[in-house]
Specification:
Layout lengths: L2 H21 L8 H20 L6 H12 L11 H8 L2
Helix pairs in contact: 1-2
Length: about 90
């Protein structure tokens, strides 16, 4: 896992925790304007983290097909445990 993925994941976790606390009535940030700004940025981060590397766009779908065609991505429908075991020793 690269550093960018770790940072995205950590920011997503903090954003989710902040959102849940705000929904439960706990003000994590005292200034209302700053709190609203953080909520908007958190929403953007959540959408960005969900979009990143999930093959949601047409370009992403095409990339996924190229990866599948070259055997660089696992597919639930095409995974062969016996073949994977045989290749593990090589």
């Amino acid at each position: 896992m690269d550093k960018a993925s770790i940072v995205r994941f950590l920011v997503l976790i903090v954003a989710v925790i902040n959102s849940v606390l705000n929904l439960l009535g706990y003000q994590t940030i005292s200034d209302e304007l700053t709190n609203d700004l953080v909520a908007v940025v958190s929403g953007g981060v959540m959408i960005w983290a969900a979009w990143k590397n999930n093959y949601l766009s047409k370009k992403g779908q095409a990339q996924k097909e190229v990866l599948k065609a070259n055997g660089l991505i696992k597919s639930k429908n095409t995974f062969d445990a016996g073949q994977a075991y045989e290749n593990d020793g090589k």
